[in-house]
Target: Alpha-1,4 glucan phosphorylase
Amino acid sequence: MSQESPVSIDPAEVAAFREAVLSKLTYSVGKDPEHAFDHDWFEAIALAARDRIVDPWMDHTRRIYRGNQKRVYYLSLEFLIGRLLFDSLSNLGLLDVARQALADLDVDLDRIRQLEPDAALGNGGLGRLAACFMESMATLGVAAHGYGIRYEHGLFRQAIVDGWQHEQTETWLDFGNPWEFERAEVTYKIGFGGGVTNLPDDPKGERQHWEPADVVRSIAYDTPVVGWRGRAVNTLRLWRARAESDLHLERFNAGDHVGAVLDEARAESISRVLYPADSTEAGQQLRLRQEYFFVSSSLQDLIRRFMKQNGDLRELPQYVSIQLNDTHPAIAVAELMRLMVDVHGLTWDEAWTATVGTLSYTNHTLLPEALETWSVGLMEHLLPRHMQIIYLINAYHIDALRAKDLHDFELLRAVSLIQEDNGRRVRMGNLAFIGSHSINGVSGLHTDLMRVTVFKHLHQLYPDRINNKTNGITFRRWLYQSNPRLTRMLVDAIGPEVLDEPETRLLQLESFADKPSFRKQFVEQRREAKVHLANLVRERIGVVLDPDALFDVQVKRIHEYKRQLLNLLHTVALYQAMRAEPHIDWVPRVKIFAGKAAASYHSAKLIIKLANDIARTVNNDPTLRGMLKVAFLPNYNVSLAEAIIPAADLSEQISTAGYEASGTSNMKFALNGALTIGTLDGANVEMSEQIGEEHMFIFGMSARQVEARKAAGEFNAQPWLDASPRLNEVLQAIHRGAFSPDDPNRYKGLIDGLIAHDTFFVCADFDDYWDAQRKVAAYWRSPKLWWRSAVLNTARAGWFSSDRTIREYARDIWKALD
Model:
């Protein structure tokens, strides 16, 4: 996808970068240009680009220190940063310079970029949001550090074998990581287990001495995060786990070669794999060890930095803001208290005031089961001092409520940090809420529902804490880099200012929606993107797609509430209708799916198999004459998303209303001009307000209607089957094995379960979804209307910039912008 530069390039800049690459190739990679492999060139280019980042990185850091600027620390178990070569070159303004410099060396930069592995440090939207936020914080000049784990393997690589998902090790570090700097001198001791004793010099008994039984070391690795135009560069610091002693030499020399390295292997397992399966007790323990490991490392690190410049931890909220990205880092509440009370000698009250004033918490889910809880037994075994602190926080919390004459047993039980049902467990969501001064949702609907569902009782007690910060995306990645053709169109139409002020400038595009010449260009750039995607699909899975067909796309984590199954039922219904009624002038359609299922999520993996079974049947049926194709693309990641999103005509955002906190792929598709078919769920609500519901295809029950059906226990789908012959025929076909002739019983359990207990109201919304899809087809047949709406989607998507979101965080929560 080589692109010609829309601007003139300084020959001196090109020459300088060319020489920098050759120097890196020779002296850092150790290769002669005549004998260099493509990966050698990639490393040389990345190192040359990194050199251009270091000076502004150091300058920005010096300014922060000189101004004693308030720092923001973003704690997240996931950072789905993707490839960084084009990200860095683009934000530095060097992309066209680099492309020309490499062309002069007969090296195709666009080919070389494909060699960079995706840093698989996240699972999906949560991790991608964190990456967008880090880039926006650098763009806006917020003094920020991201803190996470440097997973050796990250999220698994998804392979599809005979239609089934197979998890394979993701080896993104096999050739090293040219973007990071190892900080071997930045290391902290992280303890687990052991016992707690009173300190004799503390008459109040507030301070305790924790003697861990097991200690590992954390080592820092820093990756610079470049803001737009290189205005500022922040740091993503990721932690790697190492054993306190790397090798028991005596045991090794005695012949116990395996036992000599057991401690090393156990310690390093902490940073080995993202989200180890927690279906076993060992898996649960490893997950908790991961969370505490990165939280403790990060808090020790930021306190060291704070003490170096300030010194009085009671002033921490004045100079530091810590954002907890979901409940994974919620143990930070107890760990920050431990560090301030046990290590630095603050009184309990002083430490609690500083903790609450410093911490803020972002909630990402309304699913109670997704709000982490840990068994008290596991916590007492692994983190005994923290369990003491959590008990104390809970006691003071309940005592304070009773002092306000609140004695309702059920209320106190609901807001307690300890869940007493089915075994005593620590509620990490409640801990994060109690220990933070701000709790935010990530879309208007999600925040409203938080107040009346998962945090209903806590909201009643602390009505000023919950606020909304609707998610956003970075346009630099999801428009300028992913869709350079459309970006050039925008620059030509409304000026280069759109690159720096997209939130406001994009609105000027509205007037172009009624210009036939502009709509024609819009169609052409979309078709080029579809041709590129079609080529990629043919290469990867051997399915031939028609770029003139309607590209209907649903790409996201596979989960029942996201309702890929509803889309598949529609696919089958469309397939059956096309075969039964060949006389109808059907709209050619391509159904594109991608996404990973959690390794232990059987139902989600079965949905992937169903998608592939349907694809095999549909794609090989000659009676369709190519009018319908289905493609499930394996190993969905950031790079694949960058190819899919610019090529999408229709964006599927069809989660059960009230279940999707926000979504961000919906914003990416709309920004690139795809029309949305979706429920009024998550940020779809704000999208319908900003873009206009007339330029989307909204269907299905509202969140209020879903909640009413849940409350009434109306989950049996039989009434919907009785009222819908089409739905009934679809389910019967899948049930009897029409798409699984090798195993006719494969989907009987799935369909029987769906009918008996339709937890996510797939059947209830099916007919409305079918009707909405008919409207899609009718609209597609009116090109003027379709492409006018497509242009308006792009024009009105400016509000969904992550820059807007970060300004709101910085203004309302962090108080970190001047």
